[in-house]
Amino acid sequence: MNLFERASGAASAETLFSDQTLIAAMVRFESELALAQAQLNLIPADAAGAIHQACNAFTGNPAAMAEAATLAGTLAVPLVAALRAQVATINPDAARWLHHGSTSQDVLDTALVLCTRAALEALDDEIGSALQHAAALARQHRATPMLARTLLQAAGITTFGYKAALWHHALQRHRSRLQTAARDGLCVSLGGALGNLAAYGESGEALRQTLAERLRLRDPGHCWHTHRQDWLALASEAALLCATLSKIAGDIALLAQTEVAEVREAHVEGRGASSAMPHKRNPVLTLQVLSLTQGAPQRFATLLAAQGQEHERALGGWQSEQAHWPGLFRTAVAATRTLSALLASVEVDTGRCAANIAALQGVTFAEAVAESLSGALGKPAAQSLVAELCQRALREGTPLRDLLSERLSTEPRWTADLGALFNVERAAGASSRQVTMLLGKPH
Amino acid sequence: MNLFERASGAASAETLFSDQTLIAAMVRFESELALAQAQLNLIPADAAGAIHQACNAFTGNPAAMAEAATLAGTLAVPLVAALRAQVATINPDAARWLHHGSTSQDVLDTALVLCTRAALEALDDEIGSALQHAAALARQHRATPMLARTLLQAAGITTFGYKAALWHHALQRHRSRLQTAARDGLCVSLGGALGNLAAYGESGEALRQTLAERLRLRDPGHCWHTHRQDWLALASEAALLCATLSKIAGDIALLAQTEVAEVREAHVEGRGASSAMPHKRNPVLTLQVLSLTQGAPQRFATLLAAQGQEHERALGGWQSEQAHWPGLFRTAVAATRTLSALLASVEVDTGRCAANIAALQGVTFAEAVAESLSGALGKPAAQSLVAELCQRALREGTPLRDLLSERLSTEPRWTADLGALFNVERAAGASSRQVTMLLGKPH
Amino acid sequence: MNLFERASGAASAETLFSDQTLIAAMVRFESELALAQAQLNLIPADAAGAIHQACNAFTGNPAAMAEAATLAGTLAVPLVAALRAQVATINPDAARWLHHGSTSQDVLDTALVLCTRAALEALDDEIGSALQHAAALARQHRATPMLARTLLQAAGITTFGYKAALWHHALQRHRSRLQTAARDGLCVSLGGALGNLAAYGESGEALRQTLAERLRLRDPGHCWHTHRQDWLALASEAALLCATLSKIAGDIALLAQTEVAEVREAHVEGRGASSAMPHKRNPVLTLQVLSLTQGAPQRFATLLAAQGQEHERALGGWQSEQAHWPGLFRTAVAATRTLSALLASVEVDTGRCAANIAALQGVTFAEAVAESLSGALGKPAAQSLVAELCQRALREGTPLRDLLSERLSTEPRWTADLGALFNVERAAGASSRQVTMLLGKPH
Amino acid sequence: MNLFERASGAASAETLFSDQTLIAAMVRFESELALAQAQLNLIPADAAGAIHQACNAFTGNPAAMAEAATLAGTLAVPLVAALRAQVATINPDAARWLHHGSTSQDVLDTALVLCTRAALEALDDEIGSALQHAAALARQHRATPMLARTLLQAAGITTFGYKAALWHHALQRHRSRLQTAARDGLCVSLGGALGNLAAYGESGEALRQTLAERLRLRDPGHCWHTHRQDWLALASEAALLCATLSKIAGDIALLAQTEVAEVREAHVEGRGASSAMPHKRNPVLTLQVLSLTQGAPQRFATLLAAQGQEHERALGGWQSEQAHWPGLFRTAVAATRTLSALLASVEVDTGRCAANIAALQGVTFAEAVAESLSGALGKPAAQSLVAELCQRALREGTPLRDLLSERLSTEPRWTADLGALFNVERAAGASSRQVTMLLGKPH
């Protein structure tokens, strides 16, 4: 992880796939494999005990392992060699039973599954925390009027609470989707050299099942060395989540613009200081979420593009998948954590929200006004009239209500309840209602 | 769709998102919206009737619509204008009720959902057909010995049936995943201009539900104009499927190489002819699957990268999503159809499979041989010995069995059941067994 | 090209790689190949004449060609077959000399080169037009003060002209880069079936050179069937250009936001109308540039990912490259054309620019103020003081100048030329100066 | 860099963008900026001296800097603060002149440029080394007959030297392209807070030029904070190079397949050992090149997608670019180094090449045979006849020459010089000739 990534807040997720974490997961696979094999009488119980003991005591040297792996072509070779040497010091006869019938892809895939499970647990926690902050914002600002914007143009009146409620709902969906994907995708990998469990005779399926139980992973019922759709789907969910994080942070960035100023990150000493401009306060958490999530679509595309994995084990694709996998999950965890901090930090300037609405001279009510005149004028004529009055209101700085009132006085046929039409709270009501639908009744 | 795409077989999926299909889906939305509104007494029943009648009779001019949309910024404006004019010819008072309370994103999103539903139905059919062919191959070649290859090196003996059974299983998983994703992601879109159903007062939720029922889509319970995770997940599933199609076709391509020649596409007059080389027969279906699927990861990344959709409607991201969406699904359907044809066409040369095994002088049994000697020699020494004999066998063109037998004769302590160890059918047994596990008992 | 792409303005570039354009380019290759071969006495002159005549008269049926290509695996087979039949009607003996010694990749690659050359010429024209509009904006608004924004926060004072001058400079660089890339990458492709010109004996190199001259393409001096770096670099330049188009349109989108309103697209009847909101005027050209360019990074990534082209001709990668190539260039041309229209349409509201500056109470001068106090206070203390006064100015709505003046009156040691420091025109001077540097002296 | 990346050989390039390297480059910018400013009398000479002295002595704490940057939003703030403190210990008055008139993007962009220059120098060296090995292979095997393969089917006879000569040519083009891109893209970044050099009055341009000279970088003549096309083009060249590395390694992987076996990596003790299969020797260097390069297209797409950089400094895009930049260049350097080792290691089994040709019963001569019969039979009939004989030759295991000879004996009108047609060396001649063209005369 480079300095730039850490400066964007990714350091908080660094340990999830660190060298030590990964080696520990590999060692755990070998230990549990031996114990499972002993359980099924595939290897002697004392051999399994020695292997288990050696694994518990093992501390790998990542730099040496990486270098040896560069020669061997896989991390499994130096790991198994080092572990075997350690087992032999405890019980020479046990050494041959280490990694028995297994293959490098079994240990590496399962190790990455174990690390990913921890990453998903961390992610679930972070989403949970973000959900609380989003819900609080939604409830607190259920009825706070704010301009709705479509195509970056003011379009009418919504509430900040409704925006936050939609953020909340989206995050909730991601949490649920990730949990489902975890159930499907966190599988033990056990196939042996050819993916057919040949070394275990008729006990292969039982061994895979026992190993799955020991590791609390799913037994997929088959070997997935080169058919990885349910595993990849985990990465897809992480990428989809990042898209939502980016959407939320993007909205906050737009609301926090100097000229909009409806939302800001709470002030923390030193946060967002500029090296050159003393008056600035940069939206730092927003920036970090945007920066962290921006590579997610391509990271996932890299994983997808690596799936043309040849025959029974890939030459390049699998290894590339491994190399790129951690970055996506680390990023997702760090970005969710940062978004959670951002949601906790967000301050809404309700006065500015109201002022931005007022500055539009009531043209935000245009749709409802046109609708109310449609009966008398027909829809196209009503829309034309209102569009013309809106342009005048903005050009002249005169409230639309006044212009319309003036015009109505000359057209006795037309009637409109101006008080009801030009009512910000009433206009905001539709969005408040949605918050209630999405989050339940106010307390 | 350009000539190159059609030459790769994509033409078969061209109508799924054609101009006419898309316009028909938009018109259907407007028609059903009016009928649903009449059902809830939101608009007069005769207005809905006129709208329905006009919609039934409507035939849009795609070129004119596209040009008008370039000016308006959305296809919905010219569509609604043209439809409204047509409604007015039937019932002038009804015209104002067309598109009532709705917005361009409602009609365009829902129209794309309807087209995508049809595409997913086509995809389900094609996967179904591919599954039949994969299952037939797996059953027929359950026990056909074939080299297993890892890192593109011969590694041992598997069966072609096991490869096909894993293809079958993966395709089945994709089918099931796509069905689940369709249930979640094929939702009606109805939010109105600001996404809060404001124009419908307290009837908004009921209207969305009624409309969903009329269109046989899911009512998501909220507006998803700029939070699109469950919709995007459909595209993710299509991209994941393409990865598997590419994996399968890639394996067939490797097996069909001149020097391997274990598999070929059945000969069809004119298929795979070379413009310059009369003796060649190119693996055309394989080529097309590989070509069609290669862009899928990036297509999906484009959709993901478009999700930072601003506020209540995006400026650029949503429109980019629309433009890129059809290509991914068309490609997935066409590639699945072509893969199905490929699986139906695949011929396995069992003689060549056996010859390729035989050419390796029995070194494919090395793992089992080493395992059987581990008891006497210890695992490292057994592996070293076997590796050395394997190199000799290949260098000298002498069967490993003979070299081993010679060696065993000098080491009375070592014993090995050579007949059992060097037995292709026995070696293939582990893979046959997996086919049975995956596909059920042989008939 | 689907309806959504055309609605975003891509239709204007549709003919560049249309079926007819592509077939004409293929036919042109065959015609010029024969004439070049006759020129070098490789085939009889009358055969070349007949081929040339047949090519001139040829009109292919794209649908039939696509279908036949699906069987053959390449468009070249049905094209050559149809052309050969036509040649035979003119001169039966000539038919065998059509496509003599060539291969499908020669004709298809060269045809795509010819189409791409036309696309690049169109692109050059569009960039030229955009440059004129950008230069006009830069000159007209050389000294128009506008807020500079960093991290979406107001940071100081620049001029709109400087923004436009940087747009101009970037577009000029792209034009120049594209021209260089065209010189390197628009090469004739001629290698024959194996890429070694075997069919032409010692005349191969001369033939390639002659053919290049006839087609006004570069002779690369070798066969590039599966080594395509200079060709791909053309696509890279198109993608880089799209990134700049997106940057420019993005800035305009931000400036055109309701709350900023410093820039707008000129009003054209019907442009940017909303289907629901009569007062809205959506930034349609901006939207289209953003929508068109958003897929470019991934389109280029697809082309790059297709470059692992096997041996002497690829199975899948080359064909995928062909399928995805046109979309990138069509998009680049259409987006540049739209950007040019956008730049021609942009209206700057100088009053609003000034008002947005004024609303910040002079905090935009903070950096210069802090610098001027650094001598007396030291930099950190000066920055702290100014930061504190800036926060007060914004909170209380009091000009920073007044707050500073008040403070200076209590600190006789400190001196500052407030008139010079708080001078918008003077602050804008640095940016005006850059416009002059970039575009030359004002006229 | 995670354990998987290091296992694929990326560790060798780890220092190029390490924390220490990056911090040193940032410090160098500040030091040279001060010296350049003193040179132009913008700051006192003794202040510059103190800054230079402090910079020379500075050793940053990356972990602390990253953490502080997470708060500040940029690495520049903690770096400048730490450096300023150090300057103050030497000369308190000098501290205010550190980073004078500059901004965080100036120092970070320039620092990344300096690191990238070193990476490009390393890359140039590695390409140079790979070129030597490729040239040696091309010369040594100029005339070594090998099957040419198109669409993964044997197509005729080429030479291994020609393949290697094309690799050589492509690498040479990349080297030349990278050198050109470096000249354009390795620019100093100096713009100040708003990108208009405001703090330096009329000396801004001279300062940028002086600083460029001191750092031996190009002075671009303008500020490139948010217009980064020439900088991005460097990354494009790195990605294009990776595509070629992948193509070359892919060809070697195919040639090294057990069933082809024409090429292998030289044996090194322990290289490519399997954890389960003692007889295997995996193509480890090949694997590493394929694994390292596979993410390059998407990495570049991420950089491209980050270019919509807002106004005068981006919120997210620039920071994402920084985070993803090092990975692409590190990968390119490591993959080139590994490819160079691979080319140095490649052993060609000329006997196997010949055997693979012989196994095809002469059908590889089909194109020339058909051509020679075209005069008598017409092209279509000649092609049909030859295709039929080829199928028979392969089916029956009889040389095509014998079948043709038999047939010729019954058709006195047809003549063919069988000895010349069925001559492997003669067939290989066209490719040998290309090697000479590409690499110059044999020595």
What secondary-structure arrangement, pairings included, does this model have?
Four copies of one chain form a homotetramer.
Chain A: H1 3-7, H2 19-39, H3 45-57, H4 62-72, H5 76-90, H6 104-140, E1 145-150, E2 153-159, H7 160-185, H8 204-215, H9 229-255, E3 263-265, H10 284-293, H11 296-305, H12 317-345, E4 346-348, H13 350-358, H14 366-377, H15 379-396, H16 400-408, H17 418-421, H18 424-439
Antiparallel strand pairs in A: 1-2, 3-4
Please tell me about this protein's structure.
The structure is a homotetramer of 443-residue chains. Chain A is mainly alpha-helical and 443 residues long. Chain A has three domains: 1-102 and 190-223, Fumarase/aspartase (N-terminal domain) (Fumarase C, Chain B, domain 1, Orthogonal Bundle), CATH 1.10.275.10; 105-187 and 225-350, Fumarase/aspartase (Central domain) (Fumarase C, Chain A, domain 2, Up-down Bundle), CATH 1.20.200.10; 355-439, Ribonucleotide Reductase Protein R1, domain 1 (Orthogonal Bundle), CATH 1.10.40. In chain A, 64% of the residues lie in helices and 4% in strands. Chain A contains 18 helices and four strands. The first copy, chain A, has helices at residues 3-7, 19-39, 45-57, 62-72, 76-90, 104-140, 160-185, 204-215, 229-255, 284-293, 296-305, 317-345, 350-358, 366-377, 379-396, 400-408, 418-421, 424-439, and strands spanning 145-150, 153-159, 263-265, 346-348. In chain A, the strands form two sheets. In chain A, strands 1-2 form a two-stranded antiparallel sheet. Chain A has a two-stranded antiparallel ribbon with strand order 3-4. Chain A is elongated, with a radius of gyration of 30 Å. Chains A and B meet through strand 1, strand 2, helix 7, helix 9 and helix 11 of A and strand 1, strand 2, helix 7, helix 9 and helix 11 of B.
